[in-house]
Fold Zn-dependent hydrolase, glyoxylase.
Amino acid sequence: MELRQLTDCVFYSMYNKEADRPILEYINGQKYSLMVDSGNSKKHVELFNEAISNFGLRKPNLIAITHWHWDHTFGMNAVEGVTIAHKKTNNKLAEMAKWKWTDSEMKKRLEAKVEIKFADTCIRKEYPLLSEIRVTTSDISFNGNMEIDLGDVVVELHHIESPHSEDCTCIFIPQERVLFIGDAVGVDYYNNCYLDKDKLCSLITAIEEFDFCVMGHAEPVSKLDILNIMGSLLER
Ligand SMILES: [Zn+2]
């Protein structure tokens, strides 16, 4: 897996379309390091740990989750650090932790429209052995915002209004002017790909103080680019 450096202390791994593996980020503080999202499996976590160790970076002490979708959370059981998620994310994870991961149960969830086809297909691709799926809640949960001092760099977790999912958390590093927006700029796949334009507008006003924006499944973009993307979504 390829790891790229964005600023002095910010790194990210590339996304992989095949099994819907999102970008994972890494912020290297003097005292602690923080990973953003846990990836979609143990394998994804292992590849990430290998990539950061090739850079001479230690394993993350903390792992912050952007939202509940499987591709961002199913690696949570395989990370070694302390995991942090918003209360709403944790509620959904607690619900999914009770689900059974068998072919027939997954088909039932598809029929009941609890799960979507795209996620079902990708989960089956990532997990040839469905019984290996483990869903866990985070060690720490928060409401609203949270600030973490990693030593020489402070990371802010903001729960934001997003059309993608109601639990979306953005990770902002003011000192580096970098924003990890996850999938927040996107339609709600679990609600017929509905795009709530009011929520998109509040997302636009919420994200102002940054230069780089890293999304879950695309190359990092500048502030101007992300505002253009949001603008064209609004015009749809
Ligand atoms: Zn998502």
In short: The chain has one domain: 3-235. The first strand starts at residue 3 and ends at 5.
